[in-house]
Specification:
The protein is mainly beta and 422 residues long. It is 10% helix and 38% strand. The chain is built from 6 helices and 27 strands.
Length: 422
């Protein structure tokens, strides 16, 4: 988290806003409220000048959120971003089983029907890929959905985790070939791998590695974690992890393992490709430090983004979203002007109640821009959470020390052209 010095009255205000949010009745959500309530006329979107570059890896970044078309607080499944690390597996509900094994007293083999027979829970959770906005062609790796399933913790407790168990590994059905280099400990290929000599007299090992992520036992037992089988009230589509995926609210997307097949309890830390070699944030020494740091991507970071500029008649508004923590406030900066308060939208209709929790969901915000001067403008936003933390500036030393694109949560600036009189 990031913090910035504020006076006592502002910090008190932010915490008060968070407390009020926590006490609100959870109701069915709708799309963004109009930026021009009560005003007639059609609302038009002014396109951004800085469109993302063409996506060079469509087989990996399969789909992104289109910010300029954002019109729903819950992102439809067919518009939700999709990342594939390996090929999409072919999973049959009939044959699918979820194994609970490793250091447990009572190993389990559960069907989808078994999970659906257990207690059901919903959570509104904004999931973001940890690489989102870290690359010039990847700015839409985020979306908000209502995920439903059964809590993970009681399933682990039923299996009876043994005293020596400290780590929980979540195995997906997807797998792919990877080559492990620069590891002086490799001496042979094993039964299914292959080795070739490297330039330093060692061996490079190529294996087929199954996708997996892990967390500590305490983290896995968090009551918010779900064995999820629904998105927005419908069964998970295959591209989103059918039949069951892990939903870990508050964690970056990579931790929310799709096509879940096995949960293994171990007595040591798991360090597969997506824990130790990939999705690792690397930072250069700064402020007198002498050692580079390597940290595995885990929990979300506070973030916001301008989504679109809209016009009705001769008035303009800026609409955006903020996520990564319970949001208390958002500020907008236009060109070189001061930071100004945006209005946090409520997004609720009192027509149908839901029991889904919303503290992990994004908040939409709106800024009434009025009648700006024609010509090109820049628009930036920054979010504050309920503890008073503020989204970092791009030149913040902690962000600037990064040499990887993961966890890029600095303030985002977009460019727009306001036309002349029309």
């Amino acid at each position: 988290m990031w913090s910035e010095t504020h006076d006592v009255s502002r910090r008190t205000l932010l915490k008060g806003a968070g407390a009020a949010l926590a006490g609100m009745t959870v109701l069915r959500v709708a799309g963004p409220a109009s930026a021009f309530p009560g005003e007639p006329g059609e609302e038009a979107v002014i396109p951004w000048l800085d469109a993302p570059e063409p996506n060079p890896v469509p087989n990996v970044i399969v789909r992104q959120l289109d910010w300029e078309k954002l019109d729903s607080w819950l992102t439809p499944a067919d518009q939700y971003f999709v990342i594939k690390h390996y090929d999409q597996p072919d999973v049959s509900e009939t044959d699918w089983r979820l194994g609970i094994d490793g250091l447990v007293a009572r190993p389990q083999s559960l069907t989808l029907a078994d999970l659906k027979a257990r207690a059901r829970r919903e959570v509104d959770f904004t999931m973001e890929c940890s690489g989102n906005t870290g690359l010039p062609f990847f700015i839409g790796g985020v979306g908000n959905a209502r995920w439903a399933g059964t809590p993970l913790a009681p399933v682990l407790e039923r299996a009876g985790v043994l005293e020596e168990g400290i780590e929980v590994v979540f195995w997906g059905a997807d797998a792919g070939e990877v080559t492990i280099r620069d590891d002086s400990g490799i001496v042979r290929s094993g039964g299914s791998g292959k080795v070739v000599p490297d330039a330093n007299g060692g061996l490079d090992l190529t294996v087929t590695e199954q996708f997996a992520r892990s967390m500590s036992l305490d983290e896995a037992l968090n009551p918010d974690n779900l064995l999820c089988y629904e998105i927005n009230g419908a069964p998970l589509p295959l591209e989103h992890g059918f039949p069951v995926r892990l939903i870990a609210p508050g964690w970056y997307g990579v931790a929310n393992v799709k096509w879940l097949t096995r949960i293994e309890v171990m007595d040591r830390r798991y360090r597969g490709r997506f824990m130790a070699r990939d999705y690792v944030t690397i930072r250069e020494p700064h402020d007198g430090e002498t050692a580079w740091t390597f940290t595995s991507v885990s929990h979300d970071r506070l973030k916001s983004a301008p989504a679109k500029v809209t016009r009705r008649g001769d008035r303009y508004a800026i609409v955006g979203a903020a996520w990564g923590a319970p949001i208390a406030a958002v500020e907008v900066k236009i060109d070189d002007g001061p930071w100004m308060d945006a209005r946090l939208n409520d997004h609720r209709r009192r027509t149908k109640r839901s029991h889904a929790r919303t503290e992990f969901a994004w908040r939409f915000w709106t800024f009434d821009w009025g009648k700006p001067a024609s010509g090109e403008h820049t628009i930036a936003s920054r979010a504050f959470d309920t503890d008073g933390n503020v989204q970092a500036a791009p030149d913040d030393p902690y962000l600037a020390s990064k040499v990887t694109y993961w966890e890029s949560n600095g303030q985002i600036t977009r460019r727009v052209l306001i036309p002349g009189a029309h």
